[in-house]
Write a structure and sequence with these properties.
Blueprint (H helix, E strand, L loop, with lengths): L5 H5 L3 H42 L26
């Protein structure tokens, strides 16, 4: 990476144009990597969802069916106050 002084940016020259183009290319590369990471994240989430959904049994309830209600006790915090 090359150092560019602030007053050089105001004066268009070949060196500044090349620097600007290189910077633009770097930003585009970063954007591409960000989009690829988002895509991989979505694919991973879809795989996890599909694996979970395979284990779930669909159940249909109608009004009046008797079901068990799970009651969980409040957990005590033993760290102090």
């Amino acid at each position: 990476m090359e150092v560019v002084l602030p007053f050089e940016v105001e004066i268009p020259s070949l060196r500044i144009l090349e620097w600007a183009q290189a910077r633009f290319d770097q930003l585009n590369l970063i954007e591409g990597k960000r989009l690829a990471a988002m895509s991989h994240g979505r694919l991973y989430q879809r795989r996890v969802k599909n694996a979970f959904d395979k284990k779930v049994r669909p159940r249909k309830f109608i009004e009046g069916d008797l079901v068990l209600k799970k009651v969980s006790q409040a957990l005590r915090d033993n760290r102090g106050k």
